[in-house]
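Next comes a single protein record:
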Amino acid sequence: MAKKKKSTSVEDNASEVQSPAVPATQDPSSRSGSGSGSGSNKTAKTKAQPQQQPPPVPALIICRNKHWRYISSFHGPWLQLPPEILETLANLNYNTPRPRPIDPSVFFDLVKIRRLVDDATNLAVRAASGVATVSQHSMSGGHHHALGLFGPGGQTKLSRERKHRMREQATQKLSKAYHLDEIASSVATMQSASPLEEVASLVLQRNPQDADAKYVHFFHEKIPSRQLAQCTNLDALSEIISEKSTQGEPLRTRATVRTFKEDFEGAIADLTEALRIHRVYRLPQNAPKHHNLPQARPGGRKQEDVVLKEEEQPNSLEIQLLFQRAGVYLTIACQHVQAAFPSKPAETKSATGKAANGDIYEEGNETGSQATTQAIPVLTTAEQEVEKKMMEARKLVRHNAKRALKDYMNYLSHFEYSPDLPIEIAEDFARKVNYAANGVRVPRSFSHASRSDSPVTGEPGESQPTHRIYALSDLFAASPPADLPPYPSTELTPVRTQQQQPTFATFQTTTETLTYHPLMNDALHALLLCHCLIQTSTKELLRHAYMVARLARLADGYPIFQASRSPARADWTEVLRASGNLIQLAGTWEDLCAPAPLPLFQPSGPGGGGSKHRKERIQHQAIIDALGDDRIKDEASFRMAVKARQLRAENDYRLDNATQNMRRWSVDDGKEYPISTDRASAIARWVLEAPPNAGLSTGAGGDGTARRKKKKVISKNRAGSGFAVGLGTGVGVAVSGEGCTADA
């Protein structure tokens, strides 16, 4: 009986909360089809029967928040750890010398979200079961038993009004959790009991104007899977925004939905307004206070830890908004790439002299290895209009990519990096985490040497620090710190001499470390995509790529996050593949980003157990990558995606182990299923086909109307220069045509 009641309530809930457009477009057609079949004669029915197709498989009905992007980035042990231990780890993380292992703002938010979701689950399950108390088993997944009688326990049944008040309290707690971080809260609610999904809708039945219930119900409303844009109305969020004009969180949520609906300009407006509200209404008395982390006591080596009050804890909303707006700007830039080129496929200069950018040339005299040609503006009025639109699209690509880059840099400025953190600090943190995870009382921190002021938060410290600390954004500045350890190291060379063999007498005294954020890996790789679109020189792009690899290998999320898939990293890898690695990386991107210490390049021997394990790893990675592909709709497309990735990985392995074979991966190998995303394809095309300085104004040497008034020297090998032409803005790459060797 409990199971039947459960299925009925889910169906009722789905029928109540689905967008009215869904049944309106499906149910009438099915009814008309059945009616026409009943009125036909037997002969017609017999002829039509073999032609009838099986009924379409009904769409999976799931909560709206399960469609949110970057959900996999927030998976990790924090979902299973008891809230008390999680809070202990958060305080331990805050009291660790900088750079702290985890960003304190997101760590404290996770602690609050866990407590809020756990308390809301307790209230929702009790209200659904109608009793005053429930067992822990019922809250953690045994809710089917909680929905029926508990047997001879003698528990008092709750009144209808009491259950409503409990649901109201649960909804208020969930609303507060979603305000803190809607992605982390979505992950936490997915781990909870199913009565949590219906609690807001039940509150709205009694009070349709409850703002907290409307906000929570927006996340928990059941819609067909992968149809968020079609089945989502923004009216509820707009009402909440008008009622709570001093809160930026509902604007953040509406911007997320606008992105799904491809209303990118509206998303930018919402995120910009949310940032303004957050900065205006973040009153000084509510801003996080900078506490001097206590030093060693005069009579001993141990120190007291700082425990922040909830109102003193840092907030992560600004970080969320910056990351989200940067992603929207990058999407807008990529959408203008197609319009930045002629409608026909780009072709090299032929006998008639038509170049890839649409200009018409006449054959000139050859001098040395180059051919001089003169651009003749033989353009009709219609062609001039097309040319003007292309120039405008190129300006929009560069303009939005620069805005995205600025937001990503501001996002990275919230985190820190140290090239020489003393190893005893890292060991002390790991030891305390082990104590806390095993329920052992964590000892007080040993006094570490003096601390410097934080370049990120401005927290005061002592002079003469024992290790250097930089904001991550400083590492990508025009003049980065010059005292960083070399990367990639000499261990990336294929041959290793006897002098390089490690000895047991060598002990590590310092280590590289950074402050981790669950969205950092994606932001780092998206930064490289932005540099591709603004045509950063090959030399600079190579420097930034090595810096991203250096940081990506350090970002492991220990001790509360697990490694996750990064869409931007996958797109960056596709851009490298399409360009043939023309920035001349020292190794594959997977090896460069592998967790420290980097593995040596040791090719596997033919056959044997190594081949079997390699194929198992390839299959495992292909499945993981396919699970993160948003374009997969059913089992058939999933199998095709896995197969395409396996074939390409095997092909890459053969090419890497061939001595003279320099053939690039062919696009035909992925014809069965396109692995590359639209964003990766757009950026790769821009890199390979965009002229130098594309999108710059005429006065800055761009490709405006003044370009056609000048004579131009076109290199014979311009079409094959790849990154050198697309990215070369210095060292004379665009004119000399020497490829990437001029910058690399």
